Amino acid sequence: MNNQYMLKTEYFDIVYKIIKSRRKTLSIIIDETGEVLVKAPKWLPDFEIKKFVFDKRIWIVSKMMKFKEKPLIKRKYESGEEFLFLGKNYKLITIEGNYDIGIQDGFLYISLKKEFFDNTELKKTMILKWYKNEAKKIINRRLEYYSKLMKLKYGKVYIRDQKTRWGSCSGKNNLSFNFRIIMAPMRKLDYIIVHELAHIVYKHHQKEFWDYVSIYCNDYQESKKWFRENGNKLTL
């Protein structure tokens, strides 16, 4: 079934996808690539969803313009290229040796056989695997800390390559996190952790939710702003 639609505006055409599920509300998400996703309840007719998109067209255009102003960084995986890790930039360096990767002396180093120095896909695979492993360790550690502090219990934890959000909390209190948040400063990463744990108590974004978040992350507005302004930099 074709779930892709187009809305013409005076600025540019908005191409969007409708994704229906067992949710209760309508929402529009613009992912890090600028793709527009409309999430809707299964029972809602398409014409109502299209009207919702039409009513939100100015907001969508303004968000998409910001994406055009801040294009995603395109990686080449070459020595000298900078990679973010916990808010700090590290220059990539390739050295000869056994297969290994890590951070040392201000560099993100990749160690491999000399004949593979120009193998971009191999270097990309190694970097992605390393970031995901580090994300799993650090996110789980911070989750344990904040869940004890907030006296909350959560279900399963998933570290994923999500395109539409930095984190989420399911109805069963399972938590999902975008592994790329490991590229943000620790305080910003902590905000995402607190945000999703807070959804165990409040399944919405109303005032009570933000008041609760502010108890454990009183600078959450600064963190929200940081992700809006720097999300395009969290790429691999």
From TrEMBL:
<protein>
    <recommendedName>
        <fullName>YgjP-like metallopeptidase domain-containing protein</fullName>
    </recommendedName>
</protein>
<feature type="domain" description="YgjP-like metallopeptidase">
    <location>
        <begin position="24"/>
        <end position="229"/>
    </location>
</feature>
<dbReference type="InterPro" id="IPR002725">
    <property type="entry name" value="YgjP-like_metallopeptidase"/>
</dbReference>
<dbReference type="InterPro" id="IPR053136">
    <property type="entry name" value="UTP_pyrophosphatase-like"/>
</dbReference>
<dbReference type="Pfam" id="PF01863">
    <property type="entry name" value="YgjP-like"/>
</dbReference>
